[in-house]
């Protein structure tokens, strides 16, 4: 039998961002009022790779439970606007932004104590994830969310994550990739540590660790001995910490256990643990529509005391939630959502490609690596030269993806041609010098006639 629809227990609010493989919106649970962030991908569209990436993230997050990793709530499939189906991942809502915006927030004068604390959180998250045999594969500033307490942060966006022992193509964001990943040789926990070093530089400067110079940047990361430039704002201990992460030989990079003992972050754990990060209900939510109504009421009745206003507004808010008719979630920007149910137990939706695995999808992550256009991170020149990017296209590939093997081959050819060009210039210079020398000798010894005599005179000279 087919699938049937039933009213969902949550309502979708306004959009709050766009991830690598889907849109992110606010969501409110109509049963208990809890506010969350929901990442959604439209099913049945051309973007099959995005659905597969979301399924991969769901499968990974179901296994994780750490105060330093964004919390997984649930996942479902819904039908909205009467026909459009969406695959949804519900996560805790962290409204503090990302650590990539840290430098902008402090006008390039970043408090290093915050950098230390955020770095401690990321290293702790990576140590936990690596201990479960998982690598994140896309550590960068925009995938580290600022927590509700001072100095706290959480690692997010596990769409590219994979098991360490799994045979899979390299993946990630180019400017944060480790050299061995760019070359297509290897990707593992050590590669996450390299990306961590680039992320620390990004926190301090507000920019990616590598400057974007198109194909030259890709070659420099993978095939040169260069390292990212250290920010002058960072202390000597910070330089040493980043240096332990950015070792070109992956066997020389420090592990997460070692990094947690480094004096740069060893005593920088957040003072308060992260508890109840997502608002438990709309009354806890600082952006709630109830606050706007309170402000309007206060403007209309300025003669009332603050205490009276607080008591009455609290009663009104509780009364609205306790009314028999319930809150009208489908109005004022909230969208009606209906869940999709199948007659077969365990089936979410045929379009979800969930298969029969206990923990998620049987669909393997496509053989692509993400090449995202980051704000202030990578320019169009970069992707025009060696990588490709597609926000939402009608192609079969769908997601912004590249074949690393082909790109590394292109970079290798570029390297060989550059070496041949330099060698040709060297030979031309030698020939020019030889001709110049022979001509000078001829002017000094005009009596020398034959070429043999001329060469003999040059040898004597």
Protein model, in words:
The chain is an alpha+beta fold and 461 residues long. Among the domains are: 4-93 and 329-352, Phosphorylase Kinase, domain 1 (2-Layer Sandwich); 99-260, Transferase(Phosphotransferase), domain 1; 420-460. It contains 13 helices and 13 strands. It has a seven-stranded antiparallel sheet with strand order 1-11-5-6-4-3-2, covered by helices on one side. The protein has a two-stranded antiparallel sheet with strand order 7-10. A hairpin with a 5-residue loop joins strand 3 and strand 4 (35-42). Residues 288-311, 318-332 and 341-404 have low confidence and may be disordered.
Q: What descriptive keywords fit this protein?
A:
kinase, seven-stranded antiparallel beta sheet, protein serine/threonine kinase activity, serine/threonine-protein kinase, Phosphorylase Kinase, domain 1, two-stranded antiparallel sheet, alpha+beta, about 450 residues, 13 helices, Transferase(Phosphotransferase), domain 1, single chain
Task: Describe the secondary-structure layout.
Layout: E1 4-7, E2 10-18, E3 23-29, E4 35-42, H1 48-61, E5 72-80, E6 84-92, H2 102-105, H3 112-131, E7 134-135, E8 144-146, E9 153-155, E10 162-163, H4 179-182, H5 189-205, H6 215-223, H7 236-245, H8 256-260, H9 289-300, H10 306-322, E11 337-341, E12 369-370, H11 380-385, E13 401-402, H12 404-444, H13 451-460
Antiparallel strand pairs: 1-11, 2-3, 3-4, 4-6, 5-6, 5-11, 7-10, 8-9, 12-13
Helix pairs in contact: 3-5, 5-7, 6-12, 12-13
């Amino acid at each position: 039998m087919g699938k049937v629809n039933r009213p969902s227990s949550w309502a979708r609010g306004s959009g709050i961002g766009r991830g690598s493989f889907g849109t992110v919106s606010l969501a409110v649970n109509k049963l208990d009022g809890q506010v969350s962030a929901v990442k959604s991908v439209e099913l049945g569209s051309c973007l099959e790779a995005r659905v597969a990436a979301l399924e991969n993230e769901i499968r990974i997050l179901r296994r994780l439970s750490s105060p330093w990793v964004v919390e997984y709530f649930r996942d479902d499939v819904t039908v909205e606007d009467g026909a459009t189906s969406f695959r949804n991942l519900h996560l805790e809502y962290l409204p503090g932004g990302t650590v990539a915006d840290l430098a902008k927030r402090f006008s390039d004068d970043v408090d290093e104590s915050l950098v230390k604390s955020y770095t401690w959180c990321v290293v702790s998250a990576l140590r936990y994830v690596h201990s479960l045999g998982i690598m994140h594969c896309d550590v960068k500033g925009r995938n580290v969310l600022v927590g509700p307490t001072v100095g706290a942060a959480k690692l997010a966006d596990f769409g590219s994550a994979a098991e360490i022992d799994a045979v899979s193509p390299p993946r990630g964001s180019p400017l944060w990739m480790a050299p061995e990943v760019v070359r297509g040789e290897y990707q593992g926990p050590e590669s996450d540590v390299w990306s961590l070093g680039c992320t620390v530089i990004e926190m301090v400067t507000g920019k990616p660790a590598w400057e974007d110079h198109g194909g030259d940047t890709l070659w420099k990361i993978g095939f040169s001995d260069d390292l990212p430039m250290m920010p002058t704002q960072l202390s000597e201990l910070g330089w040493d910490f980043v240096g332990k992460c950015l070792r070109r030989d992956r066997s020389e990079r420090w592990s997460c256990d070692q990094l947690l003992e480094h004096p740069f972050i060893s005593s920088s754990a957040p003072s308060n643990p992260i508890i109840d990060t997502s608002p438990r209900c709309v009354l806890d939510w600082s952006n709630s529509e109830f606050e706007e109504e309170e402000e309007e009421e206060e403007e209309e009745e300025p003669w009332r005391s603050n205490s009276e206003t607080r008591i009455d507004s609290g009663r009104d808010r509780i009364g609205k939630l306790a009314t028999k008719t319930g809150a009208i979630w489908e109005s004022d920007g909230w969208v009606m959502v209906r869940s999709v149910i199948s007659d077969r137990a365990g089936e979410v939706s045929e379009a979800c490609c969930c298969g029969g695995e206990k923990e998620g999808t049987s669909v393997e992550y496509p053989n692509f690596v993400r090449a995202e256009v980051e704000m202030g991170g990578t320019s169009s020149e970069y992707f025009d030269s060696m990588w490709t990017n597609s926000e939402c296209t009608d192609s079969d590939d769908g997601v912004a993806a590249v074949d690393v093997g082909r790109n590394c081959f292109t970079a290798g050819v570029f390297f060989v041609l550059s070496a041949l060009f330099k060698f040709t210039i060297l030979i031309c210079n030698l020939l020019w010098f030889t001709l110049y020398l022979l001509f000078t000798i001829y002017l000094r010894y005009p009596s020398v006639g034959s070429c043999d005599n001329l060469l003999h005179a040059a040898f004597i000279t």
